[in-house]
Amino acid sequence: MFRYVLKRFLLVIPVLLGATFLVFSIMEMTPGDPARLILGNEATLENIHSLREEMGLNDPFLVRYTRFLTNMLRGDLGTSYRNNLEVSKQVLQRLKNTMILAGAAVLIAVVIGIPVGIISAIKQYTAFDNIVMMVTLFLAASPVFWMGLMLVIIFALKLGILPAAGMKSGFPAMLVSLILPAFTLSSNTLAIIARTTRASMLEVVRQDYIDTARAKGVSEYRITVRHMLTNALIPIITIIGISFGGLLGGSVVTESIFAWPGVGRFVVESINFKDTPSILASVVMLSVFSTFVNLFVDLLYAFVDPRIKSQYQSGKGRLSSK
Amino acid sequence: MNNHMEKTEAVRDRTLFQQAWRQFRRNRRAMIGLFIIAFLFLVVVATILIDLFTNDGVYTQYVVKQNLANKLAKPSLQHILGCDEFGRDMLFRILWGTKYSLLLGFSAVTLSFLIGGPPGMFAGFYGGKVDNIIMRVMDIFMACPFILLAMAIVSALGASTLNLLIALGVSGMASFSRVARAAVMSVKDKEFVEAARAVGASDFTIIFKYILPNAMAPILVQLTLRIGSSILYVAGLSYIGLGIQPPTPEWGAILTAAKIYMRNAWHISTFPGLFLVITVVAFNLFGDGLRDALDPKLKK
What we know:
The complex is a heterodimer of chains A (322) and B (300). By secondary structure, chain A is mostly helical. In chain A, 80% of the residues lie in helices and 0% in strands. Chain B is built from 13 helices and no strands. In chain B, helix 5 packs parallel to helix 12 (266-294) and helix 6 runs antiparallel to helix 8 (161-187). Chains A and B meet through helix 1, helix 6, helix 7, helix 10 and helix 11 of A and helix 6, helix 7, helix 10, helix 11 and helix 12 of B.
């Protein structure tokens, strides 16, 4: 088991190196001179030149990339062109808010999506199932930004029961302000999880071992949870993992609608200001975050799927378990 | 008995796509999707033709010309879907916006396939080191969340329709490499490939002339299933100001302005989104139907 975890961890390193290189190269194509951007239009050529030298902008591409990388490992992501503040501090602080939002959205999607999917599968072709399939079809196709606008119009402007935007401080107030953005962000994922759970449960519902369990007199609840769900779980976990990247992307839009102070909104602001270090840092941090979530999902498989576990057990253990 | 023989004879005569069409036609949900898509394409063709014949007259008169007397007018008999913040008829704007969503969504996916497909096919065909190198590069692209990668590209290149297309094409290529690779691997050991090699066909000919047509089904399914999300990405990026710019009536761009007026004009935010949802649902239904019809694993 340890070998599997180690192997997965080591595989993350080249991917992260590659991802930082990719984003760094893309941002390299940004037109305009950062030194001129910082100093403004009245700056003399000499001043611009000395600032370029100071910032190391005249060095070759690979030298600058290596410097960016080593600085990043030391926790230094450069200074913003916009306000001269340390980018790493700003991004990390916002990353926490994005994690809260994305975490809440995943939680909502799982807590609602899986039970709904299970009930839909057990009651296949009933009115409940039909309604669920209909609703999830539309939820999965709804753009996040439109969902957000609709929820704001209904719950904040018409009913006036929830705040339309912002992140309140203090625990209960923060939770209340989290409700609308979290539901907005979770809508697609919730629909996809519910549909996947249903499909995956339907595959195991007619297996012989379910009949066996029923014949033995196992309770329906235990059959559903222990016999069906554990076997149906792998595709569900896969889809949660896959959705996460999309969820982070959706958080960009959701944060913009709800003025949620996360990395996503920070990226959009930074793009408007052509603040390259901030864009670079945010995209890199979100990629790192999503890579680690994928790693976590991969490790989860090993715990859910005994086939992976047994591959990495020592020879002796594998024999005795057979 | 005789009847039965005739039937099996008829089955044998059909090509894969005729067979798939028969299957597809019986799928009611898929047909609904197809009809909606056909209708939307009619709208696209009609708006393009109208612009062509009236020399953009209708476009300038009804779609972009401001008429502040009707500012934020609620839906009525004259303006079924109401008017926007500049008094422009929402129905006209939405109909004229159809082509951006449909054509860009479609082109972005096609571009992703054109960039990502060939490397994936080579990876699947050659295996070993080539496979490893190509797919590890694609893993790197997969590590960045799709929309962030697209945003980074647009912000570096500047916001324009062409750059939006490039950004979406490049960001989406990696998943097509995976699909193309898997599709090629599933047919590359078949006899006809060996036969082609025996008559001395080059690797290039074998991949593109013999393997690709036989591996097309899963690729085609993936293409259609991705159009829906691609349309959403076009709208999403336009919404945050990195895609198509106003006054062009792209659905996402309309919603950006709508946000400011949602307090007193719910209709501006509601209708473009509804059209988006219906379009995406149609493509998803169509794609699901195509998968059921083309996927031999499900056919049995």
